[in-house]
Amino acid sequence: MSGEASSEDGNGKANRVIRIGTRKSQLARIQTDSVAEKLKELYPEIHLEIIGMSTTGDKILDTALSKIGEKSLFTKELENALERNEVDLVVHSLKDLPTTLPPGFTIGAVLKRENPHDAVVLHPQHAGKTLDTLLKNSVIGTSSLRRAAQLKKRFPHLEFKDIRGNLNTRLKKLDEKEDFAAIILAAAGLKRMGWEDRISQVLGPEDCMYAIGQGALAVEVRARDTDLLEMVSVLHDPDTVLRCIAERAFLRQLEGGCSVPVAVHTEVKDAQLYLTGAVYSLDGSDSLKETMQTSVSADNKTPEEVDERVQRVGVTATKISGPAQDGAERLGTALANLLLSKGAKEILTVARQLNDAR
Q: Distance between CA 211 and CA 186 in Å, rounded?
């Protein structure tokens, strides 16, 4: 195992020490601990060491993410440690991972998705209200162009302003000042932090579709570490994998990232994968939205070997039907091409230019 440490127990038997890299924020630690616990349950003999690191995205707190223009804001330092064999696995929020990973890395596990929707957290003085019932010109905090574009269109009486920082910081900014009537956060993060009681409203797809990969955790490994890849592959959740492959293929084909408003909604139902995807202008006034579906039923009578060297939008999933994964990837690409044929490129180019000029 490349660079992997080992320790000896009282019987002189070598035990594997697997080092897991994570961001230092409380939420990142909670997410990483949950993955570590699952691995420990499955492989009681391994020793896990968790190593926290600060990333560029954690350090630059005075600029909107979409303005920084770096695709791997929350992942680069972690990947550098993976490359230098300082850690063996890295746990990420999947939505932070670019659709194309650096050579030599792969996503070895995508865990069962938490609620992927966005949530409204109100200032205590507005308890009991919704975005609909907040007063005209109430200020809503969000650092996401995707959320702002959709919500400006849906709730024209509200104003939207950037708010940065980790979950703890953003809640503090909301509660201790009167700058914001509410902030928009991912429901998954609030739930993992044990702050579900702060959720005033969960936004359904008719109000705000979510980000690519939102609510799912990913374990990134070195692609050459086949035994580690095998070990973490049992954490894959098949439906989440297929949904996220489709979402990531959609974003990759659009060449989107943090700096453009792109949103999705996916569902697996009766062996069909449904993907709704949309692009928006910054103020939400211009948008394109379409839905497509594909069959993802796996024929279990002929279990096939999936080539572990094959990555689909950065994901290696050897235990999930290859044809189903291919179908999910083709679905994402086809939906993006449909939107591009209707003018998505123009909408996103203008959004990017306006954002850069802000």
A: 9
**What pLDDT, on the 0 to 100 scale, is given for residue 327?**
97
HEC-encoded secondary structure of the chain: CCCCEEEECCCCCEEEEEEEEEECCHHHHHHHHHHHHHHHHHCCCCEEEEEEECCHHHHCCCCCHHHHCCCCCCCHHHHHHHHCCCCCEEEEEHHHCCCCCCCCEEEEEECCCCCCCEEEEECHHHCCCCCCCCCCCCEEECCCHHHHHHHHHHCCCCEEECCCCCHHHHHHHHHHCCCCCEEEEEHHHHHHCCCHHHCCEEECCCCCCECCCCCCEEEEEECCCHHHHHHHHCCCCHHHHHHHHHHHHHHHHHCCCCCCCEEEEEEEECCEEEEEEEEECCCCCCEEEEEEEEECCCCCCCCCCCCCCCCECCECCCCCCHHHHHHHHHHHHHHHHHHHHCCHHHHHHHHHHHHHHC
Given a cut of 80, is residue 305 above it in pLDDT?
no
Computed over every residue of the chain, the mean pLDDT equals: 88
Q: pLDDT, tens digit, for every residue of 196-216?
A: 999 999 999 999 999 999 999
Is 96 known to be catalytic? yes
Which pLDDT does position 11 carry in this prediction? 38
Q: Compute φ and ψ for 8, nearest 5 degrees.
A: -110, 140
Whole-prediction pTM value? 0.89
Two tokens, residue 256: 């989107």
Q: Which of 96, 118, 207, 237 is flagged as catalytic? A: 96
Q: So what's the pLDDT on residue 159?
A: 97
